[in-house]
Structure formats: structure tokens, C-alpha cells
Write a structure and sequence with these properties.
14 strands, 8-stranded mixed beta sheet, 6-stranded mixed beta sheet, 218 residues
Length: 218
């Protein structure tokens, strides 16, 4: 069995991807995922991807966050896995990816990968919570995983390390917590987004499912 480990990056999210025996280990060993994702003692990543080929047009993907917890879905991770399946494993450029959330159709065109996502599982539900000045009450919805979407002003100056963790763990979002996506609408309608990701417990450079959640809210 081919067994290899790769480092991938998509839109600023980075991942360690395993095929063969490495994929089996990444799925079954949360401590291994934590060690590999450690940015000081390991390879460094936002999460791990366990990739299994079912057929030339179908793959299965298991995702773990950097803290070893299982994630039902990761947008940029799923896009990275689709491209890896084509370039490394010889899969068709159009495929179906079995994730912990749903079966996701994907299309790979060179370095561009698009996903066809199902409708949100729930929400948006308004979260009434005491929040810092300049931050409005958020909307909670699921795009595979929970997202708390919050409009704010002065996004660039937002102390996300301070405001992100308590909102990510707020009792109103449930025991599993949520990713927190802060956004600001610029003149002309463009959006700026910053995300505090659960499971990474830090701000990441991008969050694919978070971008979809913000777009739906807006």
C-alpha cells in the first residue's frame, strides 16, 4: 500500500495530508495529529487530512483539527484533498468527496478547486450575548460545522485573541463551541473577514466554510 505524507496549503489554511497507512494513522491517532500540527515541535498545520481513494471519481476524507479533535467538514481542506486526489492519486477531475458532513461534489481545474455544498443544516439563529463595543449580536449557523458570524467595525484593529475565545465557547452556541467569523462590509460591498477557529484555538489566515457562512448572512 502506498503510504505518504504531504504538506498542503489552500487560501492560507495549511494541512498535513496522509495516504495509505498514514491516512489510517491520522484517522485513528488524535495524538499523532496534535504532534504533526505543532508549529514548534512538528510540521505545523491547522489540521490533518486522511485521504482514501474509493474509486477514480470518489474519495473519502477524514479531518482532524490541530488539537486532534475530529471535524465534520473543512472547506479549504476538502479543496486541498480534491486537488491531491487528482495530482497524486490519478483521480478524475470531477469527483465526489465523502466527508463527515455530507457527500461533496468537487471539480478540479488546475490550481482552482470548486465545491458544491448542501444547504446549511440549521439557522441562522440570533445569539444574544454581551459583546465588546463595536460588535453586534451574532448569527449562528452550520456549514458542516457551527459558525458564529458577527459584524464588526474596525476589523483590522480587532483584538481577536481577546474577543474570539469567549465567543467560541459561549454557552449559547452549545457544548461543541463554534468558529467565530468577524466581518466588515467595505464601501462598494466587498467583505473583509477574520476567523477564530475552534480546534486550532487561534486565528487562521482563512476558513472556507466560514467564508460561505459570512456570505449567506450578508
Amino acid at each position: 500500500m502506498r503510504s505518504e505524507l504531504y504538506k498542503l496549503e489552500g487560501a492560507g489554511n495549511d494541512f498535513v495530508l496522509g495516504v495509505g497507512a498514514w491516512a489510517l494513522r491520522l484517522e485513528s491517532e488524535p495524538d499523532l495529529a496534535r504532534r504533526l500540527c505543532d508549529r514548534r515541535r512538528g510540521i505545523g498545520a491547522d489540521g490533518t487530512l486522511a485521504l482514501e481513494t474509493i474509486d477514480t471519481d470518489r474519495i473519502r476524507l477524514g479531518y482532524r483539527n490541530a488539537d486532534g479533535s475530529v471535524g465534520a467538514f473543512c472547506g479549504n481542506g476538502t479543496r486541498c484533498a480534491a486537488r491531491a486526489a487528482v495530482e497524486l492519486l490519478g483521480c478524475h477531475r470531477k469527483m465526489v468527496i465523502e466527508t463527515g458532513w455530507a457527500e461533496i461534489p468537487a471539480a478540479v481545474d488546475g490550481s482552482s478547486v470548486s465545491l458544491e455544498l448542501p444547504p446549511p443544516q440549521s439557522g441562522p439563529v440570533r445569539l444574544e450575548a454581551a459583546e465588546p463595543e463595536g460588535i453586534s449580536n451574532g448569527l449562528l449557523l452550520k456549514i458542516g460545522v457551527p459558525h458564529l458570524v458577527i459584524e464588526t467595525s474596525g476589523l483590522a484593529d480587532l483584538d481577536i485573541d481577546d474577543v474570539g475565545p469567549p465567543l467560541r465557547r459561549h454557552e449559547a452556541v452549545g457544548p461543541e463551541g463554534a468558529n467565530v467569523d468577524f466581518f466588515e462590509v467595505e464601501t462598494g460591498g466587498a467583505l473583509k473577514v477574520r476567523t477564530w477557529e475552534r480546534g486550532v484555538e487561534a486565528e487562521t489566515l482563512s476558513c472556507g466554510s466560514g467564508m460561505v457562512a459570512v456570505a449567506l448572512v450578508v
